[in-house]
Design a protein that fits this description.
By secondary structure, the protein is of the alpha/beta class. It has two domains: about 160 residues, 3-Layer(aba) Sandwich (Rossmann fold); about 140 residues, Glucose-6-phosphate isomerase like protein, domain 1 (Rossmann fold). About 50% of the residues lie in helices and about 20% in strands. Strands 2-1-3-4-5 form a five-stranded parallel β-sheet, sandwiched between helices. The protein has a four-stranded parallel β-sheet with strand order 7-6-8-9, sandwiched between helices. Strand 6, helix 8 and strand 7 form a beta-alpha-beta unit. Helix 2 runs antiparallel to helix 7. The longest helix is centred in the middle third of the chain and has 26 residues.
Length: about 325
């Protein structure tokens, strides 16, 4: 099932581009900050949009993943609530607090209570296609929807969504190579724990890889960011750890000093872990590079799930948590 969902990623981006490129967004009041609320597979789109917009957005874009919201949110804050189902407990709680503060609201959802609230109060809503069984498989929808929403609100320039067509062409041209690379990477991770490193511009990709290994392959891993890890975690690499594989997510556009740091870290870790996996993003521009890595990462997690003989779709332990929370 998950392989089918991942296989539809390119078509999902195309569909999202068609759905949201012409979406009419209501004029806003004075926007001084953007706050994006979302959890798990519904929240990762916000991570990408905030990072992609960091150097071009007209105001700060902050992502929150909790019940509570920051004290500074007010009528000058554009709040984006992202929940594929529309029923995510934490996000709905945060949404109510935003509404109570008089924030400017925009919803990204396929239905549920969130869609009802958006319709009841006349909020802008980027309604996603329904029927997908795993919110984490809908990143293309949520990421593209939020890019167009923020473009429509004047927070992001048209140059970001304009890169989507190039990303689609890249993914279509690299489809077979992406799968082949993903199989090799998954084989290197089998029976190992992945330790994932990236620079800040690629941190959403590192988070995506961590989350997909967790949910699809049903195993643990962790991630950190260069250069911050050079000031703490690097010291933890003291003993030989044959159970670990270090993964470096990179682009040729990484800041030169961070490229030097990454190369040195590779040399330090090479003799301490069982292997180094270096993944360079292909494509021109941050949108294409990010979507390339996402598609590669998702296939890695699917192939790793196959090697571990686990069902990539099932999330029984999360279902148990939700059931017990409902009774608490």
């Amino acid at each position: 099932m998950m392989d089918t969902l991942v296989g539809r990623f390119i078509d999902q981006i195309k569909e999202a581009n068609e759905l949201f490129s012409g979406k009419t967004i209501k004029p806003s009041g004075d926007i001084r900050a953007v706050y994006i609320a979302g959890m798990g597979g519904s929240g990762i789109g916000g991570d990408f949009v905030a990072t992609l917009g960091r150097s071009v957005a007209s105001v700060p874009i902050i992502v929150g993943k909790d019940y509570e919201i920051p004290a500074w949110i007010d009528q000058h804050t554009l709040c984006i609530c992202s929940s594929y189902s529309g029923n995510t407990e934490e996000t709905l709680t945060a949404m109510q607090s935003m509404m109570d503060r008089g924030a400017q609201m925009l919803c990204v959802t396929s239905g549920g209570r969130m869609l009802e609230l958006a319709q009841e109060h006349g909020y802008d809503c980027m309604q996603l296609p329904g029927g997908w069984p795993s919110p984490r498989a809908c990143l293309g929808y949520s990421m593209v929807a939020q890019m167009y929403a923020l473009t429509g609100k004047g927070v992001l320039p048209n140059s970001l969504p304009a890169q989507i067509a190039g990303a689609v062409a890249l993914l279509e041209g690299e489809a077979d190579d992406i799968k082949a690379r993903a199989r090799m990477i998954a084989a290197a991770l089998h029976h190992k724990t992945a330790v994932i490193y990236s620079t800040s511009p690629l941190e959403p990709c590192a988070v995506r890889l961590r989350q997909q290994i967790n949910e699809n392959a049903k195993t643990l891993c962790w991630h950190h960011v260069i250069p911050e890890m050079n000031h703490n975690e690097l010291v933890g690499w003291k003993d030989e750890r044959p159970d670990l594989v270090a993964i470096f997510l990179r682009t040729r556009d990484d800041l030169e000093r961070n490229q030097v740091r990454t190369d040195i870290c590779k040399d330090i870790l090479r003799d301490l872990c069982s292997g180094i996996v270096e993944i360079y993003a292909k494509g021109t521009g941050p949108v294409a590079q990010s979507l390339y890595l996402v598609h590669l990462i998702d296939w890695v997690s699917v192939y790793l799930a196959d090697m571990r003989s686990v069902d990539a779709v099932e999330i029984d332990v999360i279902d148990r948590l939700k059931a017990e929370l409902a009774d608490a």
